[in-house]
Amino acid sequence: MAGGADSFRALLRAANALLLKRRYHAALAVIKGFRNGAVYGAKIRAPHALVMTFLFKSGSVREKLKSIAQATYAHSRNLAYFVFTYKGLLAAQSQLQGKKVPFHSFLAACIGGWLVFGDNNPINSQIIMYLLSRILFGLSRLAVEKGYIPQPKQDPFPLVAALVWGTVLWLFEYHKETLQPSLQSSMTYLYEDSEVWHDLSDFLIYNKRTDSK
Question: Which residue windows are transmembrane per the record (predicted)?
């Protein structure tokens, strides 16, 4: 028993020593990136899928749990593959050129995005839209920081908020099919289902009646 414990401790020391070797850092960073992508994807998707599925999807509990598991796995897998691909390509370019330059990040991410997130499905679509909104904000701030556009005299956020909400509700009312399905479901619940009721039960307690009255 003691011999087994000693062997395990020796193996652990060897593994820790390997992890600290500088020459293996790039390769090990790729592996840890894969691990972090998988964990982060699961943490982000699982609660979101749980809420959206039980709020808006019909079907048995088993079907809903299966849908949640599939969405969580897809998000976790894709993010893990992307981080692995991105960091691997980044390390390869840096090794070939002898140094890291900004274009390496752009090129590695473009290739990773094409390979991993190029399939047009609900999960990838949500991730891309999430990133797109933050890119627009980031590029706007960068343009001000670099002096390409003048610093606004007043906070432009209220105007942005007004235009975003005005546009999305116009699309929902008149071109609903252009919006992403989960957004359609959310807006249907908020703006269309609130127009329909039969008595106090589905006015205050439930969104829709489940009986045939």
Answer: none
